[in-house]
Design goal:
The protein has 175 residues and is α+β, with helices and mostly antiparallel strands. It contains four helices and ten strands, in the order E-E-E-E-E-E-H-E-E-H-H-E-E-H.
Length: 175
């Protein structure tokens, strides 16, 4: 059972799901997506012993970007069960955006800290605050500590994205 944890607004989505306790031949299934300001439902199509959840691009284009709770409920007569519940993310359709900054929050914070140290920070960057103190009011020693902390966070993010482990392996040959 592979249920996506990320959806992209405006792109078609299709994935099969099967539950051994709830065969598609006997049960109906619906995927419910709920966020603070949007809701979407996908009724599954039955395929032998699995359910196929599918939504076209026109349908997903209406999904607002953000964090959602996804639940799958199966029903049979008066019986209702919820065999799946997970947090998922709906990302915006990149083509529909005028501009896009692909950096993570940690990368943006690291750049703001480095710009502040170099006296090149924008007004927005100077407004960033850590521990209740804005960057422009933070002493240099604390900025250097923040820079090290965020540099480590960014390095971990990049290693995780590349599929490598969090530990760096250095191979050494001894003579």
């Amino acid at each position: 059972m592979v249920i996506p944890t990320t959806f992209i607004s405006g792109l078609s989505v299709s994935f099969p799901v099967s539950f051994s306790q709830y065969p598609a031949s006997e049960w109906d299934a619906t995927l419910y997506l709920r966020s603070a300001n949007h809701a979407a439902d996908i009724i599954a199509q039955k395929q032998e012993n699995s359910f196929l959840f599918a939504a076209d691009g026109m349908t997903t284009a209406e999904w607002l970007p953000g964090e959602y709770t996804a639940v799958i409920r199966v029903t049979k007569g008066q019986d209702v069960y919820q065999p799946y519940s997970e947090r998922v993310t709906v990302l915006p359709d990149l083509v529909q955006l005028d501009t896009h900054d692909p950096r993570s929050d940690a990368e943006k914070a690291l750049q703001a800290i480095r710009n502040t140290l170099a006296n090149r920070a924008t007004a927005d960057q100077l407004k960033l605050s850590f521990g209740g103190r804005s960057l422009e009011k933070t002493p240099i020693s604390d900025l250097l500590k923040l820079e090290r902390r965020f540099a480590v966070m960014v390095a971990k993010e990049k290693r995780a994205k590349s599929g490598r482990g969090l530990l760096k392996i250095t191979k050494v040959r001894m003579r």
